[in-house]
Amino acid sequence: VQLVESGGGLVQAGESLRLSCAASGRTESDSMMGWFRQAPGKEREFVAAITWSSGFTFYGDSVKGRFGISTDNAKNTVYPQMNSLKPEDTATYYCATVRRINRRWSGNYWGQGTLVTVSS
């Protein structure tokens, strides 16, 4: 599975940004796609996930109500929509094929990451 992210950049607090992740080579076992982020000096954090087939969505507590996630199944692409961005959202964002085991999210295949910087 190959995952290619795009859409990162520099935005001001309160603005919106949409990332994308194009997946190729995935199989039926890769039923969910998700995003994680990691800020300098901090642990990796789960952001959001979505199922390809039914569009069920899941969100991390820090982004609930501000971020959305959607798919274009024809393009095998996942789009996190980030609204009302805050400086603390600054991080490198990674897409991944994900699973949830014992309430913990884990990634299997990973993209290269895209940097999002939110200025105050």
Protein described:
Strands 2, 5, 6, 7, 10, 11 and 12 form a seven-stranded mixed sheet that branches. Strand 5 (32-38) and strand 6 form a beta hairpin. This protein is an all-beta fold and 120 residues long. The mean pLDDT is 95. The chain has no helices and twelve strands. It starts with a strand and ends with a strand. The chain is globular, with a radius of gyration of 13 Å. It is 0% helix and 57% strand.
Percent helix among the residues?
under 10%
Largest sheet: 7 strands, mixed
Dominant shape: globular
The helix/strand series, from N terminus to C terminus, equals EEEEEEEEEEEE
Beta-strand share of residues: over 45%
Structure summary, number of beta strands: 12
This entry's quaternary arrangement is single chain
Overall pLDDT score: 95
| Rg over CA atoms | 13 Å
Indicate the low-confidence ranges by residue numbers. Answer: none
What class do helices, strands and sheet pairing give? mainly beta
Helical region count?
A: 0
* Distance linking N and C termini: 37 Å
Tell me briefly what this model is.
By secondary structure, the chain is mostly beta strands. It contains no helices and twelve strands.
List the helices and strands and how they pair.
Blueprint: E1 2-6, E2 9-12, E3 17-18, E4 20-24, E5 32-38, E6 45-51, E7 57-59, E8 67-72, E9 77-82, E10 91-101, E11 104-110, E12 114-119
Features:
mainly beta, 120 residues, 57% strand, 7-stranded mixed beta sheet
